[in-house]
Structures
1.
Amino acid sequence: MNLQAVRSIYTFEMARARRTLLQSVVSPVISTSLYFVVFGAAIGSRISHIEGISYGAFIVPGLIMLMLLTQSVSNASFAIFFPRFSGTIYELLSAPIAYYEIVIGYVGAAATKSIVLGLIILATAGFFVPLEIAHPLWMLAFLVLTAVTFSLLGFIIGIWADGFEKLQLVPLLIITPLTFLGGSFYSVDMLPPVWQTVTLFNPVVYLVSGFRWSFYGISDVSVTASLLMILVFLTLCLGLVAWIFKTGYRIKP
Amino acid sequence: MQPAIHVSNLSKTYDSGFQALKNIDLEVRRGEIFALLGPNGAGKTTLISIICGLVNPSEGTVLADGHDIVNDYRAAREKIGLVPQELTTDAFETVWATVSFSRGLFGKPANPAHIEKVLKDLALWDKRHNRLITLSGGMKRRVLIAKALSHEPQILFLDEPTAGVDVELRRDMWEVVRLLRESGVTIILTTHYIEEAEEMADRIGVISRGEIILVEDKAELMHKLGRKQLTLHLQYPLERIPATLGAHDLALAEDGTELTYTYDTQEERTGITGLLGDLNAAGIDFKDLHTRQSSLEEIFVNLVRERQ
């Protein structure tokens, strides 16, 4: 394994994040804080506790998930789209490096960034609401698995996209709506019965529910189902990435 | 001795159905400068792209330093450095960072002394802290070369290295290439400037419409390319070439107003002085003259025609 190359890609990507600190860290933190102010303080004060948890605290896992998904996807998709767009990908293709090593470098960096961001948001949330984490190890496991899975999805989008519009399309039209409708800000129990059933087809529900369970021990769906869902997602993404490199789809004619 | 590059029966058909390469066989000797000449769209870049791993071959095999570029790609690619035709660089990285990144990508441990030497050789040392976006086109080209040399390759591909580069930089680059060759690096360059091939290459390959038409020593090919034509615009039309001029290789235009003399610049005597003397003696006046060298493009066309 060309560890040196993996390390080079990883540090290169992390350096890019440091250079764009304002947009990679500060802006997600600010927008999350806004959610706390609006939902937690303004609206939350009028909503009674949900399953014994104050509304402000209840939305913390959902908010972290929202940021985790969007940031993982946008980090990883941009990281691989840009070399394709500028043409510098020639160097990756001509280097003595295996495809899986390219993926580890880029996805690893993207996932690291969103995990760090998730933890920063968690710390920020601590300023607004009292936090308790019932299962810290599970919390970390969900955080890492979700970040890796969605960074892989971002990587796939970055390879599939042939322009900046498509790069924005999936995060904007699919991931954000699914997250908003995925129980980030409410419990599925609060929905009418029909919508409760429909919601179960939304994969993000399982992620948010599992993550929230790791905080408060409450969940909309069973924790096993949540974990399975993430693993199914992860497998799907890995399969797609493998297929992309096997066929050279959009990178190697 | 094992060749640096060994290409056998290589073909490439793109998904669009366009056949870019047709059964290419080619050997590049170790330590030589090999120039691949050909008109635009001839398949030069496709050939290089396959050898370097940017494009999948449809058929055939390529060995780089004895290593198969598909099955043993790690060993093969470690030996190869590529300077692409397009000026593709990151924008916000510094020169130092991007060149160091390239070295790491090729699996080599950091070696600041080597990077420093490469940057100094390419007159980039003063710019090492500059962001790439602030560099001129010529400087970016140097950065691409520095990136390709960062991992100390044994085989260097230069795809149109001097396209859009000013004269001074072109000379500098030729100098760098010569130094590399002296250090034992095999160099393959593509170009459509005959001057460049003439200046640099040991051997020349000509590619046209996806086929290698010839591979020859430079001296031999230059001899072929060296043919020139002298055209005389006559004061008064001639009906035929006078017998006294029969010794010269002359052709008369249909309307009799132009005489064309074909000669070889590589020979010691071009025969022009003798021709002009004989013309004078025959009382043939001319009002103008010009000489032209058959262009490389024309030679390609002729070569292709000969083959068909």
2.
Amino acid sequence: MSRSLRPLVATAVIFAIAYALAVMQFPSMFSTRVLGNFLTDNAFLGITAVGMTFVIISGGIDLSVGAVIGFTGVLVAVLIAWAGWHPLAAFALSLAVAASFGAGMGLAVHYLQVPAFIVTLAGMFLARGGASVITQDSVPVNHEFYDWISDLIIRLPGGGRLSFIGLLMVAVFIVGALVAHRTRFGSYVYALGGNPVSASLMGVPVARTTIGVYMVSSTLAALAGIVFSLYTSAGYPLAAVGVELDAISAVVIGGTLLTGGYGFVLGTFIGVMLLGLVQTYIIFDGSLSSWWTKIVIGALLFLFIVLQRLIFAASAQGEKAS
Amino acid sequence: MTRRILSRLANPQLLALVGVLLINWLLFPNFFRITWQDGRLFGSLIDVLNRGAPVAILAIGMVGVIATKGVDLSVGAVMAMAGAVAATLVVAGYPAPVAVAAALAVGLACGLWNGFLVAVLDIQPIVATLVLMVAGRGIAQLITEGFIVTFTDPVLIFIGTGSFLGFPMAAVIALALLVLVTLLVRKTALGLFIEAVGVNRAAASLAGIRSRMLLLYVYGLSGVCAAIAGIIVAGDIRGADANNAGLWLELDAILAVVIGGTSLLGGRFSVPLAVLGALIIQAMNTGILVSGFPPEFNLIVKAALIFLVLIIQSPLASRIMPTRMPVRETSK
Amino acid sequence: MPDEQYALEARGIVKIFGNHVALDAVDFGLRAGEVHALLGENGAGKSTLIKILTGAYQPDGGQVLADGAPIHLDNPQQAQTHGIGTVYQEVNLLPNRSVAENLFLGHQPTRFGLVDRRKMERESRGILRRYGLEIDPSSELGAYSVAVQQIVAIARAVELSGKVLILDEPTASLDRNEVERLFEIIRDLKARGLAVVFITHFLDQVFAVADRVTILRNGKLIETRALDAMSRTDVVRLMLGKDVAFSGATGVEDARPMGDVLLDYSQYGRKRSVHPFNLTIHKGEVIGVAGLLGSGRTEMARIMFGADAADEGEVSIAGTRTTIARPTDAIRHGFGFCPEDRKAEGIFGDLSVRENIIIALQGKLGWFSALNRDEQMEIAGRFGESMDIRAASLDMPIKLLSGGNQQKVILSRWLATDPAFLILDEPTRGIDVGAHAEIVRTINRLRDEGLALVVISSELDEVVAYSTRIVVMRDREMVAELNGENINPGVIVQAIANHRDEELA
């Protein structure tokens, strides 16, 4: 088995075992309703995590995604509720704003040659600050289009429902996987994360790829912001605080190497589902408190970082010595 | 001699601080007014010192970490944990010194854990410290069982809100720590070794410097500083708020260090300038507050500040401007 | 115009860095269907020439021609379109991606906008087969040995370029069988009409595979000649610039009374790095280490100092057995080490000259007995004077100093620790004449003061002048120990060039 697959398999096995144990304890967790809600409740996190997967595979990190979600939610809400725009027009504008925002961060990462975390940290401040400058309150959205979207559901046998946003997340994962694994852009992203010097010698357009990666991440974060707005029917500047950490955790737990070069978009899907499972389990249990989520995520993160270290350390050493 | 002192005072960080304070004064004419009341000083300037202290303390720990080419993302979460430990212990009836000692021990343990991951397991610092950044807050909530643990212990409250010679206790602690750590790194060879490891770890190893131990100490110190900041913040609000104590302060601390002229790529560092960086950030905060802007405005100013510093420090800028801005202080 | 057409030609190439002439009117012609070895010690200008031929550098004079027509190369991609492909010593591929993707990155076949992986892998399999590789193209490149990766890199370069293949030290980390396999591929490519440039430090390999050889020294073209008319000794002599006939007379000092034994390495070695060697070092002697680059001389220095741990053999100091597993062990016993790569392993670029001088002493003293500024200034000033370090101020960053002065600083760093034994790896490489003389003078002085030294150098005249004994390294092995009458450049060249017949597979 290829060594890059090993963390992914570990995640899948852990998820299967954890889910089986949870179902043994609470048989009702094995139902279409719970599964449907899994998708709906984690839709915005999942979409964000797809973008984060690209960034991390390229060897970077994006701390601004939570803030972009918050900003987009506010922008969309204000455009619809105050300016009277049609939601689709508001969506289009906010996606465009986010794309150029991401391009700006990519430019800074590439041309200033500074660590991505500090650039995207500035991006985080900028987006949160921008959202708060627009409004500091929660802006409710009441629009028939929103009602129409939330009625778009597929009912499953057993009382489950597949919501539009849940399906949207699945679609984003599929498209993301295709882009990552089946396009030249995708191969450039991996090349960049593997070894930027080799990549550039092999003809990879390094600047364009770096900018593209951060554009993808910000645009998907904005899409997640739209989903969040559909989910909550409101825009709030402090929404989705800390989602960047959840997204990074989901990506790493899904088998992507935090230092770049290896990873799978579909692995991130399992990572998101595993985080969702932890949360759902804690809700089902009732006696466990919500903070266990963070502790479990932290423990999983540690487990996978050490696991990757062990799998990749030996070979990395070998490459250096030779 | 005086000329030398003057030329050292004319560093960009100090000029920036003066500039920010002057802008504050223009926006809010009473900015420099300081009054004496109930045996302590009051005024916006004092407020800058008081509110800036926690980030200054974090920056004192962070600057050594960054000088070794590392970063410690966990300090905010460590603050929450330390505050939770101290608050929970005094509420359970333990005397304050025990609570403080326990909180400091927790901070040290967290720092050594980070140091272990970085120095021994050779995990990238940003990755290694992310673990505690994510889990730390959960652990803090576990300690407080999800509540904001309020306390009435006079010693802890004094640490957070008291005054010494008229100055806020937090600022006094920060100053003491500044002096202590500056002496520690500059009167021993520690500072030189940290810079050597940050500049060239391979050469440091050949020159006989044990970089592993050094990294352990540096991350340990960062953890202890975070714990001190956590105790102050808990004392200030008379309670431990596991959710919000120290939230995003790791980023402010990193920013303070960067403003203080220490490169994120490691090497030369200055503890006093990092503290000055923290004061610049707080002066902006306070200025925005007192002049009536929404506090969130501050985030945008901070973002602009990061870009400004990054552009000044970037290789691109040094290519355009032949003489580089003197952003790096040479050690004495 | 010669009647022979060159596939790739460089005429009168000049390249200047600052005030250093890296290439001085160098001509180089490469025929289709030949393997052309490019030889020279470090600093001879090989890599500069290669970088000009691949478009990484632009020449300051002269021109590059392909098939007789002048071409202009701005970047490696452009060289590729002119049919010039390069494979570097460190495989510049992506170990994290599949073999097929490494062959096709940037040129993947697509269908409906998506990479047609099946087609890519099918074509990859065909290409790999031509190079004798029966491996799964969908598997990760990093899972294979360096040799296989090297062949994949050659395949990529040839498939994308197809006319000229430049191999920059491709065999540095391959074992004998792997080298032989690589040679088969090179011969095969030659038969297909490719022009191959082959750079290596292993003379056996040059004679095994190359048709002609071009030798550079100090940026100048020394000779281009067909190899079948040359002996190994000829080649080494041209590379090192030593005329054996005249060098026998170089003054050899009378055997001096040996000091006490300081160090004894016995069957000391490290797998895949240096074969076990025996070396006894006395006080007051300089042991010169001769050998071409890649002969294991640096590796030997590193395990002697504990920079890499030895995994066999033992060492005793003044008769007592001890372990030297890391540099701090060595330093505690009074060792010092000036590494070959000054910039990467020697200097602390951003730190001051003063700090660079006192750092090893401070490391020995520990944190708490910190030298204060005055003491540091005193020590740095003392060595600044005695070593004639030319710096505007001892407080300026060392990276602003010239190479020679940096080297004097590093030497001072160890002298400040009052050492008993110094290992100097190429202490005089790439430095100006004045600093060179100063360092040679210092080596002589230290020997007379009773220190033991091991000095690695490619400058044979120099090694002969200060060494009491010389050991010769070849193929990671200590192959000869010369003393007395035998210390002269001619004998050394002979020892370096010698090859044992059983080594030829």
